[in-house]
Amino acid sequence: MGTRGKAEGSGSGSRGVSRRTLLIGGGAAALGTAALAVDDVRRVWWRVPGVEKPRKPGELDYAGARWVAASEANWRRADRPDDYGVDRVIVHVTQGSFASAVKVFQDPAHQAATHYIVGQNGRVTQMIRELDVAYHAGNRSYNERSIGIEHEGFVDRPQDFTPEMYAASALLTAEICARYELPVDREHIIGHVEVPGTDHTDPGPHWDWDRYMKLVRAAPQPPPPS
Questions:
Q1: For the sheet containing 88-91, what is the strand order?
Q2: Among 132, 141, 113, which Cα is nearest to 61's?
Q3: Overall pTM surpassing 0.90 (yes/no)
Q4: pLDDT digits (tens, 9 = 90+) for 27-55
Q5: Cα 164 to Cα 162: distance, rounded to the nearest angstrom
């Protein structure tokens, strides 16, 4: 908060701001506010009661994936990146099989899910739109700002992290980084264990970050959105 300046004084000896300056400044501020208001309306028109932003059931954000919907209890509707900027990819490990991860993400009692699951065979399944906020990080702010990717396996079994999994996940992460214009580095691509306040340890000590980041950097990236 700024301090009050002498120009706020009302006595004859003060150097007050002229009425003309106030009118011009007020007009400019009003125009600026109006422009912001128009922009806000463009972004949130679909939130008007009775109006829904158009979406196609089963629509994919990543062409290499197949769609299997998560329970609506495990995510919340949003309009990212208009309402929440996306600046992170978070790497998870399922601590179970591919099928078990899909099953729990479809269970409304689970209260958690990621946007994607990558199998040991390189199969990619999308369960939540990138537009929406998935409950995956254990931290509300990080949920709102990130895309979550699960990987089939267990943190204490290095053999679970197959070449097919690394390659498929790297292609997915590279495309996400290009889509949101994120630098391909360890500040913007993190493990679940690095989320503040979490009690999770994934992806664990056997996840080869050097290998993974090299693959992400080497992946062909589509041009960023215009």
A1: 66-67, 124-126, 116-118, 146-151, 88-91, 189-191
A2: 132
A3: no
A4: 444 444 444 455 555 555 555 544 556 78
A5: 5
